[in-house]
Design brief:
By secondary structure, the chain is mostly helical. The chain has one domain. 74% of the residues lie in helices and 0% in strands. The protein starts with a helix and ends with a helix. It has three helices and no strands. Helix 1 packs antiparallel against helix 2 and helix 2 crosses helix 3.
Length: 77
Amino acid sequence: MNALDDALRARIDELAGSNKGRQPILSTTGTQVAIAELIARNDRLERLVGELSLQIETLAASQRGDTPMDVASASDR
């Protein structure tokens, strides 16, 4: 279970950007740059939430003994 936790945390850090390539939004940052950075952050967070929800569904299904097909049909709902 710890390996799974570590893998999820690593993936979260990777998708969230964990300060790599992120531009700080300062009071002197131009509006266009600030908006572009916020859009990029939002996109990363949306991907992160989607991936995490699928991984959590898969983990929960494996603990219940469901098959991958059960997980796929459940996520389509």
